[in-house]
């Protein structure tokens, strides 16, 4: 193959790769252990909304370990940088768990903050979803690698 | 059987207007319903499904855990200190057991 042919072929593969990557990025950043198809029914049940209705937002902060020693006990912390009268509820979802919905926290007088521990069956993406008073759904995602599963 | 429940504040004596954390720990197996015993039978789900926090008799927050929460769970919330008073936390699991704890909020 001469130089020109080689370049052309290279560009073609590049374009192909880009078109293949694009949908993965559109679905939320290509996190490790993502499983939107499995998450979808849980979102429908808990919120009545689907994954594409969630807006990733920098106001929501989800603190998770990158690697968890035990899937039976993974600490997490959710902080929301919004006034407390704007936040209605906080949810946590783990994509690959047998039941992805972990917890719903209804905040009455509390400051928008929640810390707890969750079980994780395997390496998965984790989502913190915040319901605001005006009906918006804000999301923060993180990914935790699990060495020993905690659901079975 | 009652669920053993503990509650504490950090810092223990916040200043008025400051944000402090309320941490609740319950002693509970939190069976998710997906685990199997030695014979391969599923262990039925047994987990805390409601945590309600009252301040001076008024409900201020509630947590609805699903089966995915860890054994001996910790529930951490944050509040802004206003008046002194008492927090009461009421837990209930899906088999009808309940637990209760209370902690006094004193201002520095």
Order of helices and strands of chain A: HHEEEEEEEEE
Mean pLDDT of chain A: 84
Task: Give the termini distance of chain B in whole angstroms.
Answer: 37 Å
Largest sheet features of chain B: 4 strands, antiparallel
Class by SSE composition of chain B: mainly beta
Rg of chain A: 19 Å
Record field, number of beta strands of chain B: 7
Number of helices of chain A: 2
Tally of DSSP β-strands of chain A:
9
Please sum up the structure shown.
The complex is a heterodimer of chains A (152) and B (108). With 152 residues, chain A is an alpha+beta fold.
What does this structure look like?
The complex is a heterodimer of chains A (152) and B (108). Chain A is 24% helix and 38% strand. Chain A is α+β, with helices and mostly antiparallel strands and 152 residues long. In chain A, the strands form 2 sheets. In chain A, strands 1, 3, 5, 6, 8 and 9 form a 6-stranded mixed beta sheet that branches. A 3-stranded antiparallel beta sheet of chain A has the order 2-4-7, with no helix packed on it. In chain A, strand 5 (87-94) and strand 6 form a beta hairpin. The termini of chain A are far apart. Residues 19-28 of chain A have low confidence and may be disordered. Chain B has 108 residues and is an all-beta fold. Helix content of chain B is 0%, strand content 52%. Chain B has strands spanning 4-10, 19-27, 48-55, 58-65, 74-80, 85-93, 98-105. In chain B, the strands form 2 sheets. Chain B has a 4-stranded antiparallel beta sheet with strand order 4-3-6-7, with no helix packed on it. Chain B has a 3-stranded antiparallel beta sheet with strand order 1-2-5, with no helix packed on it. In chain B, strand 6 (85-93) and strand 7 (98-105) form a beta hairpin. The radius of gyration of chain B is 16 Å and the shape is elongated. The relative contact order of chain B is 0.32. The mean pLDDT of chain B is 92. Strand 6 (101-107) of chain A pairs antiparallel with strand 4 (58-65) of chain B.
